[in-house]
Amino acid sequence: MLTSKELTLTDDSKVVYNFHHYDPLFFTHQLAHFSEDILGYNKVIHYPGEMPDVQQYLNERPKYLHKLGRQAWETNDKQLIKALFG
Questions:
Q1: Does some domain include residue 1?
Q2: Residue with more model confidence, 72 or 75
């Protein structure tokens, strides 16, 4: 599997690029019954919008840090998406 940074684009006009992305997980999986590690956060996040207290949530649940530690952003906006794909 390639990351978006490793992808070489083609000149073929019949090629369609597709991707699937889960970050930021606190946004994409908010209130999901199957995501026990995030379900306790119990806040609705909008795009664009703030993701308040994510770091505090993770600090109080250190067992999730290995999986979600990179998720401790405070703002869900265009700059975050650019940073993730930059």
A1: no
A2: 75
